[in-house]
Design a protein that fits this description.
The complex is a heterodimer of chains A (about 400) and B (about 500). By secondary structure, chain A is mostly helical. Chain A is built from 23 helices and no strands. Among the domains of chain A are: about 80 residues, Alpha Horseshoe (Serine Threonine Protein Phosphatase 5, Tetratricopeptide repeat); about 100 residues, Serine Threonine Protein Phosphatase 5, Tetratricopeptide repeat (Alpha Horseshoe), CATH 1.25.40.10. In chain B, a hairpin with a 2-residue loop joins strand 5 and strand 6. The chains are: A mainly alpha (about 400), B alpha+beta (about 500). At the A-B interface, helix 3, helix 5, helix 7, helix 8 and helix 9 of A face helix 1 and helix 6 of B. Chain B: It holds the Pfam family DUF4331.
């Protein structure tokens, strides 16, 4: 073999083995701290690097490390701006959205030019369902630093929530185009979002392409495994989908990931395994149900769609809707109302969820099913067709039933 | 706490972590105020002027200067306006802080002879000297820009330049290419009908200041009193006692002459005592933007910079807020009110021993609200929101060109800053004194602060567009410390210390 070629191949191998971006950031910050202990900027970098590693690995231990490092930083320099930023970020991670919004708003008053802080304001407002405020903050991100990736992805998500899927894809693509090649996890994340957007647009082939692309960029990336599993499930390849979701759950052992896996096991006809997974999920999810960072959306779906305990579902949904009014929580609430036979109210609530124009197959299916129960066949058909075109198999089934009834 | 891995919502927050955005942490230079604006030279507004014309008392002059520190010899393209920028002049006439009359100026560039090596050529290779902006004598005017002026009001928009060819006057390349530059420049003044005149092009920058002395952490020249002017310098509006950092530099200008009646809320000319006589103005630059909820094909703009009162963004607004300030609208300025009520600049003056009025500095609200003395007709209910607008009482008669005083209002010359702003007003000296508290108590806080630069280097002219013609590129020089430019000193050499 040509020596130069060999050398460069070896170099590529070294680079590939050198560690993930977060691992590198942790090492760099630790090296800095070794030379200058308690230096606040290094402490802040380390806290952020731990938090970032937590995302890469889904290992919560890194969150605890981030918290601990943050405490050191705040002890060394009380209320220092960068540390409070990390704090806001961690509050978002803990799903303490109202608190995160408060922290971010305070930071924004202190330094209105900080683009990242606007990002936190977008996230908290989106989670709370304050969409106009989220749009305003996202617009400031793009005004202050036109074309910044974090602003583009947020604007893309806001467009998606408002049903503007081609526009969302356009922004995700430009975010991808401006992400450096070395940022493998960011690129994989963006590809995963593009897979998701393709899926909800009804383009299964593209959804598959982007999901496999993401796994190529960052092997075993758990977000991408979930995206590909969704595609496989829609292709009726349930065994493959279940295998992917099992891997995802192993990498990121959270209740909601177990729920998705259990649902797929059921679809694959593996009833006993599904029942076991559902039972474990219920325990796990109940244990965290009262915390901010919970899996209540999945728990509600479980009680309605799998456990036939609609009263429990509604109780949890009422608690959630009091806390946040985003479209997905509204959808859970509407679906729980419907499961308890309160169709009129369910109809009102699902309309509130759909009001901003969101085109999510699950929400559209729920809207169709609720309209069906309300004896509004035309409206039901409209929603169900839309949902079916976006790969909702449940909607397709109900649509067939509906047309057969009509034919009789 | 557990880590959620599923929702896009939370993972967006996490993406932020990896895409660290640098904090603007440096104090930017004067003609480069906000950190982000400083990266966009073409959209950088250097100065905004509004005054009643000393030439025609029924007209208001608005001047938007952009693109700082243009070195006159910097060929081959010199200093075109940016066709990607929307330049705007905005007027609030009903005291609500929101523009009611807006003038939009946009440029187009044509390269008339793509093979020629320079934008401007004359008296060479059979090409005649450039003596005209169009037609015969314009053959060598290769890189040429035309522009449109559109007036926007609630009633709709009207292109004032419709059916006309209006050209920006190029930089002064030198005597061989442009043997009669002043004559060429005169052709760039266009009458647009309805009593409006416009001029756009490159001029000698009329602003004057000792930037080097100021930005070296307020290290003003000892020869000029070290920040407190000696009596001789204080009373001399004709000479400089410190080097003018803008000497020899050009700037791009858009100047508009508009009848007062086109700007007031009721279309009438008012006496100084009527509140309707007072307007608030500012200039902006904007670029195309990504709109979060934008539709494809719709033209939307992101404001890059605005300027109302001079030195507000440079000297008053904190560095962490300068970009937000630049991009926001004046109507939202209440968020920055604390910078005005307790200005850092006052603390700095206090720290070097200047008597300074105590915070909160409600006296400075005069710059950001409608009130006496600029608006004697305004009652308490007419102040309007806190908004950085350059306020002009159009009913106050303009001072004759030769009688104008550089200290404007402070020297009893009521047609000068902060009643609008004229080209010759020494806003740096005035602003320093205002920050110290001269408006609170002229005796107690009336230290004659100043940088010793009292006049622009190229003399202003008595008629529209009033600014001196661009410096000749071939003969360009700058006057710094130790160089000629300070006529009062021996051999006219400016002091270094």
């Amino acid at each position: 073999m040509n020596k130069t070629l060999f050398a460069s191949l070896a170099l590529i191998a070294t680079v590939a083995l050198a560690g993930t971006p977060a691992e590198n950031a942790i090492q760099k910050a630790q090296a800095g701290l070794a030379a200058h202990p308690n230096h606040v900027p290094y402490l802040n970098s380390l806290a952020m690097a731990y938090a970032r590693r937590a995302r890469e690995t889904s290992d919560v231990a890194y969150y605890a490390k981030a918290e601990e490092t943050l405490k050191q930083s705040l002890a060394a320099a009380p209320a220092n701006f960068e540390a409070v930023k990390v704090e806001a970020w961690l509050q978002l991670g803990r799903h303490e959205f109202a608190k995160a919004l408060e922290t971010a708003t305070r930071l924004n008053k202190q330094m209105p030019d900080d683009v990242t802080v606007y990002g936190y304001m977008v996230d908290a407002n989106v989670e709370l369902g304050n969409y106009p405020d989220a749009i305003k903050a996202a617009q400031w991100m793009l005004n202050l630093k036109p074309g910044n990736v974090a602003g583009l992805t947020r604007a893309a998500y806001l467009r998606e929530l408002h049903g503007r899927l081609p526009g969302a894809m356009e922004l995700m693509q430009s975010a991808y185009d401006s992400t450096p090649f070395s940022e493998s996890e960011d690129r994989a994340w963006l590809l995963t979002q593009m897979s998701h957007l393709s899926y909800v647009s009804g383009d299964l082939a593209k959804a598959e392409m982007y999901a496999t692309g993401a796994l190529g960029v960052f092997p075993n990336y758990h977000y991408a495994q979930a995206a590909l599993a969704r595609v496989r499930s829609a292709q009726n390849r349930h065994q493959e989908a279940a295998a992917l979701l099992q891997q995802r759950y192993a990498a990121a052992p959270h209740a909601e990931n177990q729920f998705a896996w259990a649902e797929e096991l059921a679809l694959a006809g593996r009833k006993d395994e599904a029942a076991k997974a559902f039972a474990e999920f219920e325990q796990k999810s109940l244990a965290e149900s009262m915390l901010g960072d919970n899996s209540n959306h999945e728990l509600i779906a479980y009680y309605i769609d799998h456990a036939n305990q609609p009263a429990k579902a509604l109780e949890i949904a009422k608690r959630e809707i009091a806390r946040r009014q985003d479209v997905f929580t509204r959808d859970c609430y509407a679906w729980a109302l419907a499961a308890n036979g309160e169709y009129e109210q369910a109809g009102i609530e699902i309309q509130k969820a759909l009001q901003i124009g969101v085109k999510d197959p699950k929400l559209l299916y729920h809207a169709g099913a609720i309209a069906h129960h309300l004896n509004r066949p035309d409206q039901a058909a409209l929603y169900l067709k839309d949902a079916a075109a976006r790969n909702s198999s449940e909607a397709a089934v109900l649509l067939r039933e509906q047309s057969q009834t009509a034919a009789r | 706490m557990t880590l959620r891995s599923k929702t896009l919502r939370t993972s967006l927050a996490m993406l932020m972590a990896t895409l660290t955005i640098q904090q603007p942490a440096v104090f930017a230079a004067s003609h480069r105020e906000a950190p982000i604006t400083a990266l966009d030279q073409k959209a950088d507004i250097t100065d905004w002027y509004t005054f009643v014309s000393p030439e025609r008392a029924d007209k208001v002059i608005m001047i938007l200067n952009v693109d700082p520190f243009l070195e006159p010899s910097n060929g081959p393209n010199y200093f075109p306006f940016d066709p990607g920028i929307l330049y705007e002049m905005k007027v609030d006439n009903n005291h609500d802080g929101v523009p009611d009359v807006t003038f939009q100026i946009r440029f187009k560039t044509e390269i008339r002879a793509p093979g020629v090596f320079t934008g401007f050529v004359g008296n060479l290779a059979g090409i005649p000297a450039i003596t005209a902006l169009d037609g015969a004598g314009s053959e060598g005017f290769n890189l040429r820009q035309s522009y449109t002026v559109t007036m926007v009001t609630k009633a709709g928009s009207q292109e004032l330049t419709a059916g006309m060819n209006t050209y920006a006057v190029p930089a002064n390349v030198g005597p061989k290419t442009m043997p009669d530059y002043n004559g060429l420049r005169a052709q760039g003044v266009y009458s647009l009908g309805q009593g409006v005149r416009v001029f756009a092009g490159t001029v000698a920058d009329p602003f004057y200041i000792d930037l080097g002395g100021f930005f070296d952490s307020v290290n003003l020249r000892k020869a000029a009193g070290g920040g407190v002017l000696p009596a001789m310098a204080e009373g001399d509006d004709q000479h400089n006692y410190a080097p003018n950092s803008l000497a020899g530099f050009d700037v791009n200008t858009i100047a508009l002459e508009v009848p007062i009646s086109m700007l007031t809320s009721d279309g009438k000319v008012h006496a100084a005592g009527d509140k309707e006589a007072v307007i608030g103005t500012y200039g902006t630059t904007s670029r195309h933007k990504t709109t979060v909820m934008g539709d494809a094909g719709a033209e939307t703009w992101a404001q890059v910079q605005r300027l109302g009162n001079p030195l507000i963004n440079e000297a008053i607004i904190g560095t962490g807020s300068k970009d937000k300030f630049s991009m926001d609208d004046p109507i939202n300025d209440a968020q920055f009110a604390n910078f005005v009520l307790d200005p850092l600049a006052a603390k700095i003056l206090g720290s070097i021993g200047v008597p300074v009025a105590p915070a909160p500095r409600t006296d400075l609200l005069l710059l950001v609200q409608y009130a006496a003395p600029i608006c004697p007709g305004c009652g308490a209910g007419d102040a309007g929101p806190v908004a950085d607008l350059l306020r002009l009482n159009t009913g106050i008669r303009p001072t004759a060109f030769t009688q104008q005083k550089r200290l404007g209002f402070l020297a009893g010359d009521l047609s000068g800053f902060p009643n609008g702003r004229r080209l010759g007003d020494d806003v740096f000296d005035i602003a320093l004194r205002a920050v110290a508290g001269i408006l609170v108590d002229g005796k107690k806080y009336g230290t004659p602060l100043g940088d010793g630069v009292n006049t622009g280097t190229a003399p202003l002219q008595p008629s529209f567009p009033f600014m001196a013609p661009a410096y000749s590129g071939r003969d360009s020089v700058h006057a710094g410390p130790g160089q000629p430019g300070c006529a009062y000193y021996e051999s006219g050499i400016c002091p270094s210390l």
